[in-house]
Amino acid sequence: xxxxxxxxYFKQVTAMTPVQYQKQIRxxxxxxxxxxxxxxxxxxxxxxxxxxxxQFSREYTRLxxxxxxxxxxxx
Length: 75
Fold this sequence. Notes:
InterPro entries: Homeodomain-like_sf, HTH_AraC, HTH_AraC-typ_CS. This is Helix-turn-helix transcriptional regulator. By secondary structure, the chain is mainly alpha-helical. It is 76% helix and 0% strand. It has a single domain, classed as Arc Repressor Mutant, subunit A (Orthogonal Bundle).
């Protein structure tokens, strides 16, 4: 299967691109770590594969509707 065929099929099945899917999985894992473990936002960002804690925070806020820090405080 060619890369373009895989990309099209993946998007049909998941309704998102492989990059969007990977980002969502990383952010969901980051949220789980923030809620269940006593880690800070920067450590969590690095653990789930982000090179920049600020990028992690921006994308986290975009997906969940609130910042990682606010999410920690809620739980």
